[in-house]
Amino acid sequence: MQAPFELAQMIFQNAHKFSVQCHTISDFPPVEELIRETGRWFYELGNEDDDSFRSLKMKIWRLRASVIYSLLPFDSKELGIAEQLWSLQREVVYVPFLQERVGRLTKILQFLLETPGNPKREKVFELLQACPDKGCGTGIVVSLVRGPTPGWSKTVANEIVNIVPKCEFIQGSKALKHRTYRQLILPASGRLSPVVVD
What we know:
By secondary structure, the chain is mostly helical. It is 55% helix and 5% strand. The chain has nine helices and three strands. It has helices at 4-17, 29-45, 51-69, 81-92, 99-114, 119-129, 154-163, 174-178, 194-197, and strands at 138-141, 168-170, 183-185. Strands 2-1-3 form a three-stranded parallel beta sheet, with no helix packed on it. Helix 7 (154-163) links the parallel strand 1 (138-141) and strand 2 (168-170). Helix 2 (29-45) runs antiparallel to helix 3 (51-69), helix 2 (29-45) runs antiparallel to helix 5 (99-114) and helix 4 packs antiparallel against helix 5. It is elongated and about 65 Å long.
């Protein structure tokens, strides 16, 4: 365990050297279109407090988050995009004004399932492979939303450990208060992450 002054010195040094590198996944129309389309669903469903609408909103959010936050290939069984879509399609049968929307959403998700390469996965794994010392001093934020992050799984964790066995998985802001890191990887904007918000 580090003495308080040693930790304070490390924190000061980290703050002094602190820099942010933003790696943007640009020009990936399927995910951009998915974000727009699911936004239209939320707009169409409005502020209705009906149980069935609440269930639909939750399913749409989970589907969208599964694609946005995951480091799995889009056709991964663990991600379950096809199953989530099927569940949504069955529920929408009873909501006539969403019939057209479900057709559009199906086309977008079908494309992702047929071309499963996940650009975020490729970029994050590229960054991990470049980490020195088997990932010692590297942390990857896995709490991208409050509660379990959709699209994260033991498979992804095992793949990361195989590349950088000393990398740490950061579940909350507490980890940042008790340790210092050479590099933190935040595979999302961080807008909903308790690690960033708290």
